[in-house]
Amino acid sequence: MAEITIRKAPGKWTVRSGGAILGETNNALELLEGDKDPVIYFPRNDIAMAFLDRTDKVTHCPGKGDATHFSIVNKSSVTDNAVWSYEDPIQAVAEIKDHLAFYPAESVKVEQI
Length: 113
Description:
The chain has 113 residues and is mainly beta.
């Protein structure tokens, strides 16, 4: 299993989809896992949850636990299962609880601003 490192992501981060800003935060976390691309986790309080619709999809990661998924729903589009969250992560990665991460997609942009 790859080593997981979590640190505060420097600066301010934003996530947009379909022209809508879903959230901005100065409190993002950056998760590094092995040789994978870093993943930015946004505090749930900094995301407009009205745009997110929980789905039935659940995935399991041995290093993090079970991830619930959400689709992004806005006026112009629906992006299925575009967001995930570890609502009860394993103890080693407890900091990502109450955070959301976004799959890279044409319709979803996570950027440092």
